[in-house]
User: Fold P-type Cu(+) transporter from Pandoraea thiooxydans.
Amino acid sequence: MTTSESEVAASAEARQGLSSERAAALQAQWGRNEIAAVARAGWWETLLEVLREPMFLLLLGASAVYLALGDRIEALTLLAFVLLVVALTAFQSHRTRQVLDALRELCAPRAQVLRDGTLQAVSATELVPGDVVVVGEGARVPADGLLFEAHELSVDESLLSGESVPIAKSCDGTLPEPALAAARQLFFGSMVVQGQGRMIVSAIGASTALGRIGASLGGITQAQSPLQLQARAFVNRFAIVALCLCVLLAVAYRWRTGEWVPALLAGITLAMGILPEEIPVIMTVFMALGARRIAAEGVLTRRLNAIETLGEVSVLCVDKTGTLTQNRMAVRVLFAQGQEQVVDDTLPELGEAYHELLEYLVLASEIEPFDPMERAFQRAGQRYLGGTEHLHGDWALVQEYALSPALPAMSHGWHAPDLSHYPVACKGAPEAICDLCHLDEAQTAALLERSAQMASRGLRVLGVARALHPGSEWPARQHDFEFSFVGLVGLLDPVRPEAAEAIAACRAAGIRVVMITGDYPTTAQAIAAEVGLDATRVVSGAALSEMDDAQLDRIIDRVQIFARIQPMQKLRLVDAFRRRGEVVAMTGDGVNDAPALKAAHIGIAMGQRGAEVAREAASLVLLRDEFTPIVSAIRLGRRIHANLMRAIGYTVAVHIPMIGATILPVLAGWPPLLAPVHVVMLQLIIDPVCSIVFENEPERADTMRQAPRRQGARLLSNRTLVQAALAGTLATLIVLGLYAGLLSNAVEPALARTWAFVALVGGNVALIFWARGAVPRRRAADARRLNLALWGVTSAVTLVMLLLLLSPAVARLFNLVAALAP
Assistant:
C-alpha cells in the first residue's frame, strides 16, 4: 500500500520514527509488506496431494475388487484402513509444510527501522508507510521510500531498470528539482552497493514500483536436491519392476485357478508390497525436520540440499573477526609521538600525548556506527575525551572518502564553525596511511615494524592521519591532501573460548579449517596459535596475487592461514580447493563475499553482521555469528544423512518379505498369504518407522570422528543394498518356512496365515533393529537418550498383535483367526 508524498513529507517532520502503537495501526490498515504472499498449503490441499499418490489409488482398486467379489465387509474394512493411512500421510505432509513455512519466515529479509525513537531490526514484512528505515551497504531496500539523509549512497536498480551501473543517491538539494526527486527515491528490491542513508517509507507491498510491474520476490523456492532426484529415480525403477511382476503374477494366478478377479487382487497386493512410495516422503521429512534441528543450533538453512552436503565438507574456510573471535572490539594500545599506551579498564585517564590521536580517530569514524570497530572508537572517545575540547559535537560532516581495495583508508572532511579551514581525519591500514603521508622509506619501515609488533600480540592495527583543507573545491581523491601522520591504534578482539575446542572437533572429523582474514599476517598468526591452527606458514594477499593457479595448487594443501586477503581473492581460493576435489564450506559477510559464497559447495553467511546480498548467496545463515554453530550443523548433517540411509535401507529390506509373501505362495500353489488389508497394516508400521523412528535416532559417538563422506556418493551403496537384500531375504525365508511348515502339517490355512502374518510383522520390527545397526558406546550426554519413538512403535505393534491373536472380532477384520483366544 502507499501514502501520498504530502503525507510522507508531513511525517518527515518527526524523524524519530513511528511509535509501536502507530505502526500496528498502520499495518492493520495497509497490510503486510509483501508483493505476493507465498501460498500456504492448508489441510485440504495436503489431502488432495496425498489422494493422488499411487498407493492410495491401488487401495481404491483393491476395494473395488472386493466389492466385485461381493465381499462388502472386506471392502469396508480396507476403506477404513485407507482413511487411516491417508490421515497419517496427510499429517506427516502437513507437519513438513509447517516446518518449511517456519523456515521461510526465518529467511525473510530484515530491516533496520526507527521505532519508539530507537533503532530496531524487524522483518521487512512488518514495515508500514511512514517508517524511518536505515539502509546500508549490502542490504536490499525493503520498501519504496524517500531519502532524507545519505552518505555516499549508491544503489543497484537493475532489478527494475535492467541497468547494471549503480546509481548515486543524495538529498542535498544541489540538483534540479526533477533530478533531485529521482536521486531521493529508493525502490523496493534494489541493492545498496555503497554507503548508507535513511529514508521514509512511501509505499509497501503491491503498491511499490516492483509490485506494480507484477514482479515477485515471494518465498524461497526449494529445488530438488541430488539425493531427492536419486530417490525419485530409484522409486521409478521399482515402479517399472512392480508393474511387470504384477502382470506376471496375475497371469500366473489366472493360469493356476482360472479366475481373473482374484488374479487382479493378487496383482494389486503385489504392487502395494513392491512400491517403495515411502522414500520420497522420507527425503522430504528428513530434510525439513533436519533443517529445524539445525536452526535450533543457530544455523538457518536457506537451501535444503545443503543439509546433504554438510556430511561431505572437507575444508572449512572461516573469517577471523566475529567467527573465531568475539567481535567485541576494544581500543587496547595507542601509539603517538613515539610513545605507547596500553588502554584497559584500570586506566583512569589518558595522557595529553594521545588526545590528538583519539580525537582524529573519532573524527574519521562514522557518526552513528554499526561496526563493532567503529563503536569501540566512539566508546574510547567518550570515555577519555568527554568534557574536553577534543570532542566536536557542533562540527558537521561535509565530505566523505570511502575505503577501496586499491586504498584501504577512509577520510572525513568537517566543517568547524570556529575555524577558517576544514579539518580532514583519515584512518586505515598502516601501509596506506604511510603512503598518504608520503613518509620516506626509513619512516615507513619504522612504523610498519611498530605495527607488526602490535599485531603480533593479536591486535588489529590501524593508522591515523590528519590534514587541513582550505575550503575551495574538494579534491577527487585522498592522495590530493597533505596528510600528516598522527599515530597507530591497536584493537583487541578476544578469541571465543569455545573456538579451540570446535577446531579440534573439526580436525578429529577430518575437516581442515582454513583462516582467511583481512588482518595482518602477524595478527592472524597470534590468533591462529591461540585457537590451535597451524601458524607456521601464512600466505598474504599480495603473495597470492603474484601466484598463478599452478603455484597456488601446489601450496594450498599446506597452508592454513591466508592474511591480508581481499574479498575477491576468496573466490580464487574456493576455486583452488575445488580443483583439488575438496568439498568447501565458506563463511562471509560482505557484499564482495557473495561470489565466493555462491561458488563454495556450502556458503555460510553471517546473520547478524552480514550483508543481505551475502545471505541471499549463501546456503546457510548463522543466527549467531560464531564458529561453534557451524560445527554443530556439520555434526547434525552427518547424523541426518546416516539416519536417512538407515531409513532407506530399512525400506528396501522390509519390502522384500512383502514381495516374497505375495508371489511365492501363488507360484507354489499354496493359499494366498497376503491380502491388501495385510499390506495396509504393514504400511502403518513402515511409515512411522521411516519418518519418525529413524529421524529421531541419536547420532553415534563416532559421528565426528569419521572422515567426510565421499562427494557425490550414491543414495545407497552396493554394500548397503546387498545387506538390505540379505536381511529382507532372511526374513522372507523365516516367514515362508513357517507358513509352509504349518500347511504341511495340515494346519488350517487361516491359522497358518495368522501365524505367518504375525511372523511377518515381527520380522518388520526385527528389521528396524537391524537397520539401526550395532550401536557403539555413546558419549555420556547421549547415554540417557533413548529413541522414544522406536519403543513407542514397538510397543504399539506388540499390543496390536496381541489384540489380533486374542480378539476374534479384530482377527476377522484381517481375515485371520484369534489363535490365542480362550
